[in-house]
Amino acid sequence: xxxxxxxxxxxxxxxxxxxxxxxxxxxxxxxxxxxxxxxxxxxxxxxxxxxxxxxxxxxxxxxxxxxxxxxxxxxxxxxxxxxxxxxxxxxxxxxxxxxxxxxxxxxxxxxxxxxxxxxxxxxxxxxxxxxxxxxxxxxxxxxxxxxxxxxxxxxxxxxxxxxxxxxxxxxxxxxxxxxxxxxxxxxxxxxxxxxxxxxxxxxxxxxxxxxxxxxxxxxxxxxxxxxxxxxxxxxxxxxxxxxxxxxxxxxxxxxxxxxxxxxxxxxxxxxxxxxxxxxxxxxxxxxxxxxxxxxxxxxxxxxxxxxxxxxxxxxxxxxxxxxxxxxxxxxxxxxxxxxxxxxxxxxxxxxxxxxxxxxxxxxxxxxxxxxxxxxxxxxxxxxxxxxxxxxxxxxxxxxxxxxxxxxxxxxxxxxxxxxxxxxxxxxxxxxxxxxxxxx
Length: 439
Fold this sequence. Notes:
Structural class: alpha/beta
Shape: globular
Distance between the termini: 10 Å
Largest sheet: 8 strands, mixed
Number of strands: 13
Number of helices: 18
Radius of gyration: 23 Å
């Protein structure tokens, strides 16, 4: 299966400004697999997994001299490590804090060596010991996008249609909506997509969803205090119920904000949840005037979200367009998931929304994005109808926003104030991607 991250990794290999790379993201989004895929282009691939092979942490205890470290790893792995020919990969690096610190010396003393590190709980190590500023690069990885799913389905011509500027016929549009329905049922976790391509069995995919959820819950023991685990479990199970709503601690249970908030921060650090933060949207950057106390939450993946909600996925495969019409909150979360995946991969992405809470005229914009020096509002509509009152209210009060974006089942249309984009074309909103040759 082709991934956007493959292209990004290849660009890193040949970059004249290359630094040791931290591949970051939640568990099971494909970090390790992507690095192993890249390794095929190197003469030697040396992988050290500090969780599976904890003895390798001892190599970093004496000092952080990269030449000595490489000699010892080379002997222990019985493989040569050569600048320009070898890819050195430290997996689950959070298990060896000294190895994280050592990355700066690989950059300073051996800049020609290709070094990548990853870890399912790397963000927690970052908070405890820090990451060498200016001496490493980051690459954030998210679940597979809709286009990556189409690539796995071998629908190259459909991808070309999405990426082109040509008008999409009704017949092709309807075919794309069918595949979009399938994707919304499956989500973008690589193991799910791989099994779907191989077996086309929704039951097996549902079983894998449940297994992945259990895996995330088992990780609670690794990064939470004993008294926090009950809050983590409660949040994990109840947050999907507040999908697309302003988050309220009172809806979680009988506990107070001060009891729950630290556990919520843990789930955010683990990249299992993503905040959509309120912003006035009056200037750039969008986050400059945002209010961190007002936010919505989306789960890492729409497929896992539906599994947590115990939703029956069968109808997505029987009548996908009807399900899109009926599952507005899932569709809105999908848009957020796509926006994250198509954001600048070298920094942690943020999502924003806008809301006016007026007694006589309330309005809400699902997402705000920045295009150049302009802020564009996005209103997500799972149904075909709607007058887009909120978009017009936002545009009337935000003169720096030249037009609004309607994301829905509709095909591409455009007028002076509202540009309509079909749900499957969200990649076209990305400012961070050169979409040529990605697939």
